[in-house]
Specification:
The protein has about 525 residues and is an alpha/beta fold. The chain contains 18 helices and 18 strands. Strands 1, 2, 9, 10, 11, 12 and 18 form a seven-stranded mixed beta sheet that branches. Helix 1 runs parallel beside helix 17, helix 4 packs across helix 5 and helix 7 packs across helix 9. The structure holds flavin-adenine dinucleotide. The site of flavin-adenine dinucleotide (FAD) has 40 residues, from helix 1 and strand 13.
Length: about 525
């Protein structure tokens, strides 16, 4: 590099949860870390702001964190010592059906069983059996999920614990559509809808291969750790990560968009930012941005193997998103009181309705009857708004590629409100103000939410494990030496759990360690094998 304005051991691009986790782990190893963040404040899609009126604290993007609460990566950071405190709503999750019946997950297993037994007398017991199966493998499964690929030791431990017979059946479930798995395991619609609705937190509908395991994972986590929220707002989780980093000498510089990764002879040397400043990275550059952003914009295709570039052009995003935040004068007046205590509410499709919603997304049309995910934040954490009021939001997915001008967004927000009103007469009269965000607004607030994609790429099976983000090693290592992909486009994917950030930090440490040259040689040979023509 000819000119250098700053130097650090590692430069992390993006202060989302994955970038901040990576930065913390490198700082723990004694590295001097500089995180460059394009936005005016850190946190990525984990931020809180008074969007509508003072005293109402809105989670601008993500809000409920079962995976963070269960993640061994996050647990290892001991963020409680930096002010993080989890809060829980009286119940975890309610799925409200079109006829106003409710399937409710509570942290009490007996209460969940009772709710599901209202749909089919055998379903409470079947849910308890699933929960027992989850509890038996939980730690090993989470370990396998949060270990850099290939997770040889944890996967072997998992299959040893399960044995061949149960291991085969688990593997089968992992490939199944949520609808088929729900029909196999449950007789009534309550549990089936919980599975399918939770699968739809990804871009996988009830009929998609691989959706069962996402639905099952979120259902079981809900039963196990709940869907907790940070007291005071999602931003407190990011704040704890920033504070922990600062205590170890790491720095986060906001308002500094990285415009290029500087490379020479196949190696990352540092980055340039929008002001033209150049930062040298002595040991590594870690990028907490989506894969297409990193490779096609910041690195440039000329520096990459052509076959890798071809694969990247086939990268599949997940669906676009529309979200509305509300400041309410009181709680949502649900006609079924079972929905009132749930932090998260799924509204209001039955199983054929969820299948239609997913089919319309696939067909590229804006769904007639969208599935809404609703968050009742003051119900989960009363510090979010003045006593007696509520901060709430709803989001839903829409197809990519549509233009959302302000008028269309306003009309869609009206439609979302009409769906809530149908199940909560009087809801509209409690709205003191609202803040709608379409795909464009989401991306403007966080450039990594490309067209409002919440998971930095499809969760479909053809984009998981060694296929994430493109066919390769399933690791954070990239075809550029000392450059690591740390964001949710990398395995194990979207949601707040720190997995991709931790994997990137571990890879960077391995590359810089005593066996670094051997490590780099091995990765290069493997990449050559995958991307050579
Ligand atoms: C509306 C919505 C709801 C969600 N709900 C949940 C939920 O309830 N629970 C859950 O677990 N997950 C949820 N998610 C998903 C979760 O928020 C993401 O998977 C997670 O934030 C990904 O973390 P990340 O660090 O990889 O990326 P991000 O959080 O997107 O952070 C990336 C950061 O990089 C910065 N950046 C981008 N480009 C540059 C650049 N060139 N230079 C410098 N900085 C740059 C961005 O500004 C951003 O701060 C939701 C997401 C959305 C959008």
């Amino acid at each position: 590099m000819e000119r250098v304005d700053e130097t650090a051991d590692a430069v992390v691009i993006g202060a989302g949860p994955n970038g901040l986790v990576a930065a913390n782990l490198l700082a723990d190893a004694g590295w001097a870390v500089l995180v460059l963040e394009a936005a005016g404040s850190p946190g990525g899609a984990v931020r809180t702001a008074e969007l509508i009126e003072p005293g109402f604290h809105h989670d601008v993007f993500s809000a409920f964190y079962p995976l963070a609460a269960a993640s061994p990566v996050i647990a290892g950071l001991r963020l409680e010592e930096h002010g993080l405190r989890w809060r829980h709503a009286p119940s975890v999750l309610a799925h409200v059906l079109p006829d106003d019946r409710c399937a409710v997950v509570s942290r009490s297993l007996e209460d969940t069983m009772a709710s599901l037994a209202e749909f089919d007398p055998a379903d409470g017991r079947a849910w308890a059996e699933e929960f027992a199966a989850w509890s038996a493998i939980r730690d090993r499964l989470l370990d396998a999920l949060f270990t850099p690929f290939p997770p040889v030791r944890s996967a072997a431990g998992l299959f040893r614990a399960l044995g061949v017979a149960d291991g085969l059946r688990l593997a089968r479930m992992v490939t199944m559509p949520a609808r088929a798995f729900g029909r196999e395991r449950f007789g009534g619609d309550g549990a089936r809808l919980l599975l399918a609705g939770n699968a739809l937190h990804t871009d996988l509908g009830p009929g998609h291969a691989g959706s069962a395991v996402f639905g099952w994972l979120l259902c079981m986590l809900g039963q196990d750790v709940g869907f907790p929220v940070p007291e005071g707002g999602a931003g407190r989780l990011s704040g704890a990560l920033v504070e922990r980093l600062a205590a170890r000498g790491g720095r986060v510089a906001c308002g500094r968009e990285v415009t290029g990764v500087l490379t020479a002879r196949g190696r990352a040397l540092g980055v340039a930012d929008a002001s033209g400043a150049r930062v040298r990275a002595r040991r590594a550059v870690l990028a907490d941005v989506p894969a297409p952003t990193l490779y096609l914009r910041l690195v440039g295709e000329d520096a990459l193997p052509s076959r890798f570039v071809t694969d990247l052009r086939r990268f599949q995003w997940d669906d676009a998103t529309v979200k509305v935040d509300w400041a309410l004068s009181g709680p949502i007046p649900w006609s079924n009181p079972q929905a009132a205590g749930a932090g998260t509410v799924h509204l209001d499709n039955d199983l054929p309705g969820l299948s239609r919603y997913s089919a319309e997304l696939a067909a590229g049309s804006v769904p007639e009857q969208p599935m809404l995910v609703v968050g009742q934040m003051s119900t989960a954490d009363p510090t979010r708004s003045p006593e007696g009021t509520e901060t709430a939001w709803a989001y839903t997915h829409v197809p990519r590629g549509h233009a959302w001008d302000p008028d269309r967004l306003r009309r869609y927000a009206d439609r979302i409100e009409a769906i809530v009103e149908r199940h909560a007469p009087g809801f509209r009269s409690r709205i003191r103000g609202r803040y709608p965000q379409g795909p464009r607004e989401l991306e403007r607030a966080n450039p990594s939410l490309v067209e409002g994609a919440v998971n930095a790429g499809s969760a479909a099976m053809h984009q998981q494990l060694v296929f994430r983000p493109v066919p390769g090693l399933g690791r954070a290592d990239t075809p550029i030496d000392r450059l690591f992909l740390a964001g949710a486009s990398a395995h194990p994917g979207g949601a707040v759990h720190g997995g991709p950030g931790a994997n990137a930090a571990r890879a960077a440490l391995a590359r810089a360690g005593p066996a670094g040259p051997l490590y780099a040689g091995l990765i290069r040979r493997l990449h050559d094998a995958v991307y050579a023509r």
